[in-house]
Amino acid sequence: RRRHTRLQGDWSSDVCSSDLQVTAKATPRLGLPRTARLLSAREFQKVYQRGGRSAGAWITVVALRRPDQQGARLGVSVSKDHGAAVRRNKIKRLLREAFRHERPQLPAMDYILIPRMREEKFSLAVLRSELSQLAQRIASGKGARRSPRPPEAPR
Fold this sequence. Notes:
By secondary structure, the chain is an alpha+beta fold. The protein has four helices and seven strands.
């Protein structure tokens, strides 16, 4: 039994789900797999402590070169200062989308993207161009480094 799929508002017996799978494989996937994300607090801390920083008008990028050279990974940090959960989630989606598009051209580093406080809406095109510029700045060694904090004395 062939399953028919609705295509652009009409039901057509000429198109079935197995036919659609062939065309989906032909286009390159730009997904963001689990291996391309920073997941644990430990990974975030490592990037924050050892990574270089570069700030633009829309985002701040913290990045740390990866020793295994297996591609860029992403972490996103959006504070509650940006507003309600709906707005914060929208910003996170835009940052992930910008990273997803720019990932093939980015140096193999772990990146944390931190949006700057802005009243205007975030634009995907602006975020993509700024992410690319800031990543290249850090990769070339021009990103600021935080001096390591001395260990805290026991209380």
